[in-house]
Structures are given as structure tokens and as C-alpha cells.
Amino acid sequence: MRETRADTQQAIVLAIILHVVLFALMFAGMLWTRSAAPQSAAGAPVEADLVDANALSAAMQRVLDDRPEPVPPLPEPVDEPIEEPVVPPPAPTPQPQPLPSPVPEDSPTPPQSQPQDFIPKPDTAEQAEVVATPTPTPSDEKKLQEEKRRQAQVDLTERERQQEAERKRRLAERAKEAKETEEREKKLAEIQRKRAEAEREIKLAEQRLKQVADAQARASNRSSESSGASDASPPPGNHGRDTGLEAQYAAALRQAIVSKWTRPETVPLGSKCTIIIKQLRGGEVTSASVSSPCAYDEQGRRSIEAAVLKAQPLPYSGFESVFARTLTLNFEAADR
Q1: Which uninterrupted H or E stretch holds 132?
Q2: What ranges does the record list as Low complexity composition bias (predicted)?
Q3: Could you report the per-residue pLDDT of 34-84, keeping only the tens digit for each?
Q4: Residue 260's domain is classified under what CATH number?
Q5: Strand, coil or helix: what is 68?
Q6: Cα separation, 118 vs 107, whole angstroms
Q7: Domain coverage including residue 297
């Protein structure tokens, strides 16, 4: 027989109904079991064991034989009327009265914030020291106040002394810094002055080199002209020296000396002085001294003598014909 869809649905419905009935029966059984459970009472359960008296030992049997007779029950009490005691009525409760306001002399003492330390055993040494110290008299109090005032004055004086020392120290530091700044500025000015002098010396040296080159060029031209005219008859003369070459030689000597001379401030420009120079061939100076007339002071004279010694070897090449071991040079002060 073929199963249809309606048969399947019917089987499912019946199965569901069967499960519902089973759950209902289980729930009812649980309720019945809970209602039938005995009530629990407080305390431990009573347990008893049955023992045969003949099975006991002889000592236990003697104890059971010597037990006292049971006490007869008391007669039942007769019901008699009980007189109730007469209770007096309670006394009226007094009404609370307001507390009086405390006055300053009997105001309550504030509680102590911390408990007082308990000293189990007094210190006899400290007690003896306290007892031995006499109570200060008014005169002692006055002396103590005077000592405190004197100590305060000493402290004030010491503090003022320290402040004064600190002020002096700061002033000394400021003065030292100012002095260092002034010295630094002086050194800077000296460096600038020396630099300017060096630049001026360089320019003068360049000028001297140019003058010497020009003089050498003129001398070479003159020598070439004289050599070209050697075939002709020499001009008449008295076997003397060329005055023009002597002037050039003197100018070259002055230029060489000026290049090594730093004019002092006490020597004015254009002032003249006579210098006696002793030299060897080649221009090596053996001595230099100032002679009269000379308008220089002592510092100027020493400086010009030193400049002559620094300028050696003096100009020699081209001036052999006018060379002299002892020269008298009229020197005129000029800057480089």
C-alpha cells in the first residue's frame, strides 16, 4: 500500500500529541513527588540499638541491679484562684529642662587631640636637673632679655657686614670687568695703529723701489750715453766728481734711511739733522752718529742712528765714483 502525503502529516501530528502527553505526565509526577516529601525538622535524628540484657557483662548487670527506685509522680495540683498583684500607676515623667549656658570660668574643656604619652618610669637624671635649676628671678629675666637683645644686635651687625662685603665684592668685579674692557680696547687700538703703520711702510717701500728703479734706469742711460760718446774727446774738467750723481747718491741714502725709520711724535716734519756715517765698500755701515746742527731731541737722535744701522747695506751700486768712507748727510725728517 502506497503512503500518501496525508498519511505522513497524520503520523507527525500523532507523534507530537504523544510527546505532549508524556511531558504532561512527567510534570504531574514531579509535582506529586514534591508534595509527598516529608517535612524536615531541626535537630539530629534519634537512633536506638536493641541490646539483650542477658548478653551484657556481669559488671553491667550489677550496675543495672543497683540503680535507684523511680520517684513516684507528684499529686495533681488543685486549681485555686490566683490573686493578681496590685501594680501602682507609674509616676509622671518630668519634662526635660534646657541646659544653662556655660560661662567662661566653667566652660567645658576641649578634648585633647592626642593621648598623652605614658612614662612608665620617670627619668631621675632629668628630674634632678630640673629641681637643681633655680627659678629665674626678675633680675635674671632682665639679664636674659638683655643678652637676647645683645645677641640680636650682634647678628644684625654681622649681617650688615656680610652685605657690605658682598657689595664691595660686586663693585670690585665690575671695576675689574671695566678695566679688562679698557685694556682690550687699548690692545685693539694698538693693533689697528700697527696695521696702519705696516700699510704705510708697504706703500713707502713700493715708492722707494720705484725711485731706485728710476735712478738705476737713469744711471744706465747715462752710462750708455757716456760709453757712446767715449770716442769723442772728453769735455774739459778739473778731475772732480759729478755733482749730479752726488745729489742722486744723497737722495738714495735718505730714502734708504727713511724706509727703516719710524719718526717719533716729538720730531716735527721737515726738521733737519746732520748725520756722520762711516761705511765700507758695498754699503756696510761701521758707525752712525748725530752731529750739530740737529733739531731732534734725544729720542729722535737715537732713533735716526738706529735707522741708519738698519738700512745697511746702503746704496752702492752705480755710485762707486762718488762713494766715500765717511759721509756727512744732511737729513730732513719725512714720513715714509
Answers
A1: helix 124-132
A2: 215-232
A3: 655 555 555 566 665 666 667 667 777 776 777 666 656 665 655 555 555
A4: 3.30.1150.10
A5: coil
A6: 27
A7: 244-332
